[in-house]
Amino acid sequence: MLELHELTVAYGGITALHGISLRVEQGSIVTLVGGNGAGKTTTLRTISGLVKPKSGRISYDGAEISGLPAHQIVARGIAQSPEGRMVFANLSVLENLRMGAYLRNDKAGITKDLDYVFSVFPRLKERVKQTAGTLSGGEQQMLAIGRALMSKPKLLLLDEPSLGIAPLLTKTIFEQIVAINRELKLTILLVEQNANLALEVSNYGYVLETGRILLQDTAAALRENPKVREAYLGG
Amino acid sequence: MEILQQLTNGLALGSIYALIALGYTMVYGVLRFINFAHSDVLMLGAYSAFFLAPVAERLFGPQTIAGALFIIVIAAAICAVIGVLIEFLAYRPLRSRPKLTVLITAIGVSLFIEFTCQHKSVFGADTKSFPKLLASRDVAIGGLHFSSNDLIVLVLTAALLAGMWFLVQRTKMGMAIRAVSFNEKAAALMGVNVNRVISYTFAIGSALAAIAGIFYSMRAPGIDPLMGVQPGLRAFIAAVVGGIGNLPGAALGGLLLGVIETVAGGIPGVSNYRDGIAFAILILVLLFRPAGLLGKSMVEKV
Ligand SMILES: Nc1ncnc2c1ncn2[C@@H]1O[C@H](COP(=O)(O)OP(=O)(O)O)[C@@H](O)[C@H]1O
Ligand SMILES: [Mg+2]
After folding, report:
1. Which letter, b or e, does each residue of A118-149 get, where b requires 16 or more Cβ atoms within 10 Å of its Cβ?
2. Smallest Cα–Cα separation from B109: which of B121, B119, B117?
3. Closest approach of chain B CAs to the CA of A2, in angstroms?
4. C-alpha distances in angstroms, A65 versus A4, A19, A55, A222?
5. Which residues contact B62 (CB under 8 A, 6 or more apart)?
6. pLDDT at res. B300
7. pLDDT in tens, A165-195
8. If you ran DSSP here, which 8-state letter would residue B89 be given?
9. How many domains does chain A have?
10. Domain parsing of chain B, residue ranges
11. Phi-psi region of B35 (alpha: psi -120 to 50; beta: other; left: phi over 0)
12. How many whole angstroms separate alpha carbon B255 and alpha carbon B161?
């Protein structure tokens, strides 16, 4: 469904990605794990069109999408819950979710999807009128994922949903990520520093280090891989 | 009685400042810089009305309500286009540059418009008398005297401010403007065409400035290419006093400044210090509330 081919991305003179290639199969959860500064966020930002690649291709559903502006990529069915959540702190929870549905005009469908998001994250329903800036970190993460779902995407990009969140909430969020993948048959590309968590819920994984793909395998195999265990799973 | 009269006059003037201040604050909201050319758009609105007045008279007869509305709508549309063009030509190419670069460009655009318009083959530097758009009558309400024009301006401005509130708080485009104000990248990730939202913001702000320019000229002795500077400065102060980036704040700041200016102007010996008083208020407010009256202190966006 999504394929990156030899993608190179640079910020000014600093090259963040050195020709990475990866594939995300329809219906799967694929994870990209790697330490801080490995280039995970850059990868997602490039797919979403916030950063333009220096070279390489991004094909999605058989079409080349690199170079398209961000808003057109959303229109094609790729939504992102960005690193640091980036919820609109000045907007209410409901308005944030409506922003997610910005490109849609099907009222009935939007209402149905709102109900779905509330069923996945009941806490959002309780706080629907609240300003998003007053939510806890975990709740904001739920909102960021719910907001991304509201565009009715075919591919969901998640950037470190566990970042800075209490372990208990992280568990809930990851359970819901799996549920969303199953119930909506939604393809997910999950980026995580917490390799343990990520590999547990994924089908396939890539290990990224300083802008290069180091390893790739099924998630189960990666969890058994001694190198991965040593470097990312705490031995 | 006297003070009530002053208060109402102040509100009429202040509501005009409020209209201008909205443009400053909306542009600041989405782009984080002060569009110094905003006051010149106001002037261009007044000149548009100046040239449209004879057309309106031919179409609708002298000093008719339909004629006045025609002038206001067309002038607003002309200035909306001008505002969008200014952003497109001067600011958009600098979008990823430091804010200081854009700020200095804005000053450059402002001076460019002012001096171009002063040229004798454009408008000329002389003051022109502003045409009477509507016959003004004296209206007495409970011992207070108003010109009917002042009342119309007050009512129209109140309606425009209410309309703006509705637009920003209750429409999808308004929600997109607020989202872009908070985080442009996140808004783009929702499918918002950020450039279009910014153009839209300039269009609305400039249309309001044009209307404010016409209303301002109806009370002023005449118009000239530098006429935007004074009300522009006051409206800028109003926007900062209210909390830059905050729309109700801009309206509140505008009304406050209008009232203070009018009341101070009525006190013998003080009237010459009106601008000094405006700045003193600005400094006082910023000393105690650095983010302005209704502004929330936020960490500078990076
Ligand atoms: N906006 C930026 N400007 C310059 N360098 C950046 C920028 N964003 C990221 N980088 C650099 O790119 C590299 C990859 O960063 P990032 O993609 O954020 O990694 P990760 O998400 O894996 O922590 C890092 O070396 C980082 O310093
Ligand atoms: Mg990151």
Report:
1. bebbebbeebeeebbeebeebbbbbbbbbbbb
2. B117
3. 18
4. 10, 17, 13, 30
5. none
6. 39
7. 999 999 999 999 999 999 999 999 999 999 9
8. I
9. 1
10. 18-134+145-228
11. beta
12. 12
Q: Hey, are the CB atoms on B189 and A90 less than 8 Å from each other?
A: no
- Axis crossing angle, helix B148-170 with helix B247-265, rounded to the nearest 10: 160
Q: Which of B172, B176, B188 sits opposite A70 (nearest CB)?
A: B188
Q: Give the per-residue pLDDT at B297.
A: 58
Burial of A210 (0-12, 13-18, 19+ CB in 10 A): middle
Closest Cα partner for B133 from B25, B60, B84, B182? B60
CATH label of the domain that carries residue A14: 3.40.50.300
Residue-wise DSSP of B216-281: HHHHSS-B-TTTTHHHHHHHHHHHHHH-TT-HHHHHHHHHHHHHHHHHHHTSTTTGGGHHHHHHHH
Ligand 1 midpoint to CA A194 (Å): 18
Q: Classify burial at B69, counting beta carbons within 10 Å of its beta carbon; exposed 0-12, middle 13-18, buried 19 or more.
A: middle
Report the separation in Å between the CA atom of A208 and the middle of ligand 2, taken as the mean of its atom positions.
12
Separation in Å, CA B129 to CA B38, B50, B146: 22, 9, 22
A181 touches A153 (CB < 8 A):
no
Q: What's the mean per-residue pLDDT of chain B?
A: 92
Q: How far apart are CA B53 and CA A56, in angstroms?
A: 59
**What letter does residue A30 receive in the DSSP assignment?**
E
Handedness of CA B266, B211, B106, B35 (dihedral sign): positive
